[in-house]
Amino acid sequence: MNEAMKAYVASNNKYSQEAPLNxxxxxxxxxxxxxxxxxIESSMTYLAETLNVNLENAxxxxxxxxxxxxSIGQITRQGFMEGWSxxxxxxxxxxxxxxxxxxxxxxxxxxxxxxxxxxxAFVVGKxxxxxxxxxxxxxxxxxxxxxxxxxxxxxxxYDWLSxxxxxxxxxxxxxxxxxxxxxxxxxxxxxxxxxxxSFWNEDGAWPSVIDGFVAWxxxxxxxxxxxxxxxxxEESD
Length: 237
Description:
One of its GO terms (molecular function) is cullin family protein binding. The chain is mainly alpha-helical. Helix content is 63%, strand content 3%. It has two domains: 3-106, Orthogonal Bundle (Recoverin, domain 1); 131-236, Orthogonal Bundle (Recoverin, domain 1), CATH 1.10.238.200. The chain contains eleven helices and four strands; from the N terminus they run αβααβαααβααβααα. A two-stranded antiparallel ribbon has the order 1-2. A two-stranded antiparallel ribbon has the order 3-4. The model is unreliable at 5-9 and 228-237 (pLDDT under 50).
């Protein structure tokens, strides 16, 4: 199918879904909700009861990303319409629920999709007028995202998420900005690939909070890079 045909099909799909999606959105509005958005009570009812989404794990962020919610307590008509019409699925509750189940199952297996949901969690999780997350909220969201059914930030010897949160609470009790949020995932990926943290060095481009965490980790558990070097030296003697 050439690009022109794809665009034509996508356009037709968008318009064919407009009426049923509008109808669904209207059915979600509570008496106190404005015409083009639903508030926290209606939003949570839609997620938890209509779609049967678990609001205590990463599945909540899968659903919020799907409907392009601007915040956890709000879903707009525009985001709802554009989000669902872009998925290429039928415009009904059953299809939407299946989509969320299927994509939730991808979180632990598809690094690219997990990154999309992870980054969206920062956008949707912060207060609209704020540029950062409180450490308390960031910790809640990290536990949701890095726990089942999300991607596990653990290795054979370390529960990295627990260590990260312990360090932040003791040494960095500050708000979490976007760069720190994003870099945490990049660091987490590398830590799972190499639990000795040999990828890190003092001259790297990591945020200072991650530099501090690595120093704290080595002080707490010892520097396995040094042990590995000692072993190599002994073998060469």
